[in-house]
Amino acid sequence: MVSLFARMQATFGARFTALWADADLNLVKRVWAEALVGVKSDDLRRAVVALAGEKRPPDLPRFLELCEPRPAAQRPENGIARLPRYERADPEIVEANLARMRELLAPLANRKPSPQWAFDMLLRSCGKNGAALTYEARRISIDAVVSLAGRAFYSNASPDLCAKYRAVFAAALHARGDALPSRVPGEDDEEPQEVTV
Question: What are 44-65's pLDDT values in tens digits?
Answer without folding.
Answer: 888 888 888 888 888 888 888 8
